[in-house]
Amino acid sequence: MPPDQRPIKEPRWRVEHAQIVDPADIPRFVKLGVIPSMQSSHAISDLFFAPARSGMDRLAGAYAWQSFLKSGAIICGGSDAPVERGEPMIEFYAAVSRKSIKGESGPGWHPEQKASREQALKMFTIWPAFASFQEKDKGSIEPGKLFPSRRF
User: Which sequence spans correspond to the domains of the chain?
Assistant: First the structure.
């Protein structure tokens, strides 16, 4: 379809599973207008095998939430269910702790990259709504917006 006939004039590009990225590429996301999409529960499920499979050097850019945020990017969080459990509280916990459900951490997991609670909340609410052109309908608690029926 020719660009002038597209219903969306300004696309919001995303890279899904932007979970292990060369740190030098992080500023390029903002420069190119690309939203990184990550599943924080992958960070804690990868915790025990990623150093051996990916190497410690590559983990410098693994789940680099603070590096992305400091560059000016927003992060679209997700669960990747059914690959992961799809539990919102596990996703939130993984983003703010960078530890396994049992509280364990491992070498190369850069605790300085963990998200604040406010940042994690945005990763799973308003930022994904924005990334999918749905910020007028959901992503925050406001009159007239959709609200999840699930209890947390």
Answer: 10-131
What per-residue confidence (pLDDT) applies to 151?
60
The torsion angles phi and psi of 133, rounded to 5 degrees, stand at: 60, 35
Those residues of the chain that have pLDDT short of 70 are 149-152
Backbone angles phi, psi at 112, to 5 degrees: -65, -15
pLDDT, position 152: 54
Long-range pairs, 124-132, Cβ under 8 A, ≥24:
124/77, 124/78, 124/88, 124/91, 124/92, 127/35, 127/74, 127/75, 127/76, 127/77, 128/76, 128/77, 128/78, 130/12, 130/74, 131/12, 131/14, 131/35, 131/37, 131/74, 131/76, 132/12
CB-CB contact of 108 with 54 (8 Å): no
How far apart, in whole angstroms, are the C-alpha atoms of residue 149 and residue 86? 15
Distance between CA 110 and CA 103 in Å, rounded? 15
Q: Which CATH architecture has domain 10-131?
A: Alpha-Beta Barrel (3.20)
Q: What type of residue sits at position 128?
A: P
The pair of structure tokens assigned to 102 is 């049992």
Please write the tens of the pLDDT for every residue from 31-64. 999 999 999 999 888 888 888 888 888 888 999 9
